[in-house]
Amino acid sequence: MTVSKTVQARIARIWRGRTTRAKADAYAVYLRSEGVAPLLEKALGAQMFREDRETESEFVTISYWESIEAMSRFAGPDPRRIHHLARDAEFLIELPDGVQVLEIVVNEPG
Q1: For the chain, first and last CA: distance in Å?
Q2: DSSP string of 29-98, one letter each residue
Q3: Where does residue 105 rank: exposed (0-12), middle (13-18), buried (19+ CB within 10 A)?
Q4: What is each CA distance from 93 to 20, 71, 98, in whole angstroms?
Q5: Within a 10 A sphere around the Cβ of 27, how many other Cβ atoms?
Q6: 88 phi and psi angles, rounded to 5 deg
Q7: At a CB cut-off of 8 Å and minimum separation 6, what does 110 contact?
Q8: Of the candidates 23, 5, 1, the residue with the CA atom closest to the CA atom of residue 70
Q9: 3-class SS at 4?
Q10: pLDDT the model gives residue 79
């Protein structure tokens, strides 16, 4: 992903969560407004993915950052720590206990 701002993304922060298929549509709306929208105010960019399975749906949110320091200004001193949304316990099958933080090695438009 090439982000729209002039600063190059060097770090990706990846969050995953699962909900039941019955709650997936409502959670998609909630996650976009309460989770992704605030990310877009601070991150260089963000993406939200959804995979529907037979009985559950998995959501993946990836945010892009110029550095660990920039991400920490948003996420706090431990950028792998989860900041659950207010209604996550209502929607999610289990609350995730961390996020994945990866260095972006290649970031070229296709």
Answers
A1: 9
A2: HHHIIIIIHHHHHHSSEEEEEEEE-SSEEEEEEEEEES-HHHHHHHH-S-TTS----TTHHHHBSS----
A3: exposed
A4: 7, 27, 15
A5: 23
A6: -55, -40
A7: none
A8: 5
A9: coil
A10: 81
- Phi/psi class of residue 76: alpha, beta or left (left: φ > 0; alpha: ψ in -120 to 50)? left
Instruction: Show Cβ contacts of residue 98 under 8 Å, excluding neighbours closer than 6 positions.
Output: 80, 81, 82
Q: Does 17 have pLDDT greater than 90? A: yes
Structural domains in the chain plus CATH codes: 11-103 (3.30.70.100)
For 88, the token pair is 């996550």
Flag whether the pTM goes above 0.85.
yes
CA distance 102 to 68: 10
The pLDDT tens digits for 25-58 are 999 999 999 999 999 999 999 999 999 999 999 9
CA dist., res. 76 & res. 59, Å (int): 23
| Structure tokens given for 78 | 């431990």
